[in-house]
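Hello forum,

I keep getting stuck at the same step: I have a sequence, I want structure tokens, and every attempt I make locally crashes halfway through. Rather than fight my setup again tonight, could one of you with a working pipeline run this one for me? It's a single chain of 253 residues.
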Amino acid sequence: MFNLIQYWKPFTEVIVLWFVIYQLMRFFEGTRALQVLRGIIILLLAFFIFQKLDLKVLDWLLKKLFGISVIAILVIFHPEIRQGLARLGKRQLFRNNPGEKELDIIVGQITRACENMAGNKLGGLIAIEKNDSLAAYIQSGEIIDSRVSADLIEAIFTPNNPLHDGGLVIQRGRIAAAACIFPLTDIQELSRVFGTRHRAALGLSEETDAILIIVSEERRDISMIYRKKFYKDLGSEELGSKIKELIKAKNED
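Reply #2:
Ran it on my machine without issues. Output:
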């Protein structure tokens, strides 16, 4: 019985620490504070090793560093902490992937919107989040948090709408934000027929694994970019099947 208790306590502590660290990483997901949090975790591991090896000078230095860093983190990253607290009450503990029926509805709305926009000479840029978080880009736009609707997507990209410039982000099966700013690619060899939307889509694909859909108002066609690879002149059915293929590949991974 004594041996069982002896091994049960460390195991419980490891599980609790893993859970706390995981939630902290999710809490600061997509913010600058995430990189700092990773650094703090590394310092904590170093602090533990120094104590075990009885390295007194290094142990003393880390103690002083932690005392100063707590105040510095609260001052420097108070916007991220505030945003994280605001999201904490309404976020799910773990991400849920949409079911087959829900996925069909979402993809159907996206493809219908793209087909209608191409036919009406409306340009658009849509980013669908996969594994890499797009939270930082969502914060650069206007938060919407709405179900995916073809009518809403078309309305957002209608000229003279304040939100029609920039990109629209779909996160966890919902329209998260519009008028988001995406990074432009630095590739100079890109054909001149591609406009700012294509360059922004390619730029985001260089940094994330998002699925990027571009509707060209000049050529009235639909393109998609995934991991810097172009898929041009897509029909609505081809676009829908490609989106499903990439999303299901994420679920399998």
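Residues 100-252 form a domain with the YojJ-like (1 fold (CATH 3.40.1700.10). If your local run keeps crashing, start a new thread with the error log.
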